[in-house]
């Protein structure tokens, strides 16, 4: 049996704003890739049925710019 936690990485979750290179930091979420982390964050912190498609596409996950200690 493989424990998937061994392959997960902590991502930063942002929401982009028009005209900004890096948007507002919303939080952190572990995932096996950026898409997985974004999906988990939306499921845990947003009401998936009520989030608009436009807002969903403004949320993105990326590797942290610095390591956590």
Keywords, please?
alpha+beta; three-stranded antiparallel beta sheet; 2 helices; 26% helix; flat
Task: Describe this entry's structure for a reader.
This protein is of the alpha+beta class and 69 residues long. It has one domain (4-62). It has helices at residues 34-45, 53-58, and strands at 9-15, 24-31, 59-62. A 3-stranded antiparallel β-sheet has the order 2-1-3.
**Mean pLDDT level:** 79
Distance between the termini: 30 Å
Structural class per helix/strand content?
Answer: alpha+beta
- Indicate the overall shape: flat
Q: Characterize the main sheet.
A: 3 strands, antiparallel
Give the strand tally. 3
Helix content: 25-40%
Give the count of structural domains. Answer: 1
- Can you tell me the residue ranges where pLDDT is under 50 for at least 5 consecutive residues? none
Strand content: 25-35%
Q: Give me the strand/helix succession.
A: EEHHE
Strand order of the largest sheet: 2-1-3
DSSP helical segment count: 2
Radius of gyration computed on alpha carbons: 13 Å
In short:
The protein has 69 residues and is α+β, with helices and mostly antiparallel strands.
């Amino acid at each position: 049996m493989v424990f998937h936690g061994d392959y997960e990485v902590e991502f930063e979750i942002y929401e982009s704003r028009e005209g900004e290179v890096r948007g507002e930091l919303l939080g952190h979420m572990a995932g096996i890739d950026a898409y997985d982390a974004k999906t988990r964050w939306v499921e845990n912190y947003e009401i998936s049925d009520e989030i608009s498609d436009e807002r969903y596409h403004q949320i993105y996950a990326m590797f942290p710019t610095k390591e956590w200690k």
